[in-house]
Amino acid sequence: MIQIYHNSRCGKSRNCLAFVEKSEKEFEVINYLTSPPTFEQLSAIIKKLNIAPIALVRQKEKIWIENFKGTTMNEEQIIQAMLSNPILIERPLVIMGNKAIIGRDLEKVEVFIS
């Protein structure tokens, strides 16, 4: 089953969700702003994405700029910052099995879910 970590206020996230809905594949929507992942879940997603935690951070968000930009943080601290402020998590995330992508590019989403 496909999982989509979704933010309904984000156009890219809404577009991705609409695309997956049209695919007629089984999926689950997770509103990560109201139901944030646990530390273990977010760590597993990062591993599936095959990226460093900092690559999942929306570094232009006001919260990041005001509270974290320019500070030295280890990977656990970066993950904790995202969990404490879920708006910092890049979106949408599309997860299928042991792989995941950041679903901002619908062409990549199409290849990923096919």
Task: Provide structural commentary.
Helices cover 41% and strands 16% of the residues. The protein is α+β, with helices and mostly antiparallel strands and 114 residues long. Strands 2-1-3-4 form a four-stranded mixed β-sheet, with helices on both faces. Strand 1, helix 1 (11-22) and strand 2 form a beta-alpha-beta unit. The longest helix has 12 residues, at 11-22. It is globular, with a radius of gyration of 14 Å.
Share of β-strand residues: 15-25%
Question: What is the H/E order?
Answer: EHEHHHEEH
Strand order, largest beta sheet: 2-1-3-4
Report the structural category.
alpha+beta
Total count of strands: 4
Uncertain spans: none
Q: How large is the radius of gyration?
A: 14 Å
* Helicity, as a percent range: 40-55%
Characterize the overall form.
globular
Taking the sheet with the most strands, its summary is: 4 strands, mixed
For the residues shown, what is the average pLDDT?
95
How far is the N terminus from the C terminus? 12 Å
Count up the helices.
5
In short:
The protein is α+β, with helices and mostly antiparallel strands. Helix content is 41%, strand content 16%.
Write the layout of secondary structure elements.
Layout: E1 2-6, H1 11-22, E2 27-31, H2 39-49, H3 62-67, H4 75-84, E3 93-96, E4 99-102, H5 106-113
Parallel strand pairs: 1-2
Antiparallel strand pairs: 1-3, 3-4
